[in-house]
Design goal:
- The chain is of the alpha+beta class.
- It has three domains: about 1-140, no CATH class; about 145-160 and about 260-310, no CATH class; about 170-250, no CATH class.
- Helix content is about 40%, strand content about 15%.
- The protein is built from eleven helices and seven strands.
- It has helices at about 30-35, 40-50, 55-60, 70-85, 90-100, 100-105, 115-125, 130-140, 170-190, 210-235, 300, and strands spanning about 1-5, 15-20, 150-160, 255-260, 265-275, 285-290, 310.
- The strands form two sheets. Strands 3, 4, 5, 6 and 7 form a five-stranded mixed beta sheet that branches.
- Helix 2 (about 40-50) crosses helix 4 (about 70-85).
- It is globular.
- The N and C termini lie far apart (about 55 Å).
Amino acid sequence: MSVVPAAAGPGRARPVVLRPPSLQPGSADWRALDERLDAGHLARRIAAALGGLDLRPLLDAYAGRGRAAYPPGRLLAAVLYEAHQGHHSPALWCRHARECEPLRWLLGGLTPGRSCWYDFRDRLPDVVLELARQAVALAVAGGFTPGSRAAIDGTTVAANATRHKLLGEAPLAARLGRLQEAVAADRTRPAPPAPPTPPATPAWLAATAAGRLRQLARYQHADAQMAQRQQRNRAKRKSKRTPAEKILISPGDPEAVLGRDKEKVFRPLYNVQLLADLDSPLVLGYGVAARPNDAGLLGGLLAGRAVTVVVADSA
């Protein structure tokens, strides 16, 4: 096993112990696998590109406790290869790690289980922006692109919440009150086994005490978001205001804005903005906003970047 120093800080004082690849360079199996991979294969290009990145931010996501971790650099290389092939499911990554020779080459023969792939996917959001920044900086320093000309465009993506259960201010307040009563009743009940949920309770109410507690936190967050939206609406000119009862929110994802997606479906969604380099295939920056349109989002994408020419549409 290899040992990598962990980042300093609470809960990370221990070294991160990494599993060694099961196919060691120089072994007969490794040489046979390596010979079947073309010199310009995508897997080789990904491995070479990652060799120039500082992966310490990724290692910092590991606490250094428990069993030896699969090398995050190899996992990242495999995920990049899978994403390039259009495979975005950790379940597929798990299967392909056993069946796909380029992945076996990138992983050194390691075959992480499904839970490992899902855990790794959940670690990536905290470090992907830093890794992308490094990649762009290397491209600019190497003369691959000046990074000064870009095109901005956006698209809406559906939030992970249903469009069929949107609530106004009054229904939301009524549900929140019902939830608070139910949670208060749960706290005063005798020790388990607790009585089952009465059949007269509404279908939207969680069936267990733990579920109701989590549901209460979501609805409290939704209530705070609703208060902010109502306040912004009241601050508008009278001719621009929306009737208070028509301001809706999704209790499943309160931060998502309501609007029409690319297929003209009214639903909870987010606005993804991309700052694409005009001189290379790189993305110089990106952002996700809870906005139904692109107005006012350009400034945030350009902040801190040496972009002097921007191409945009009329929006």
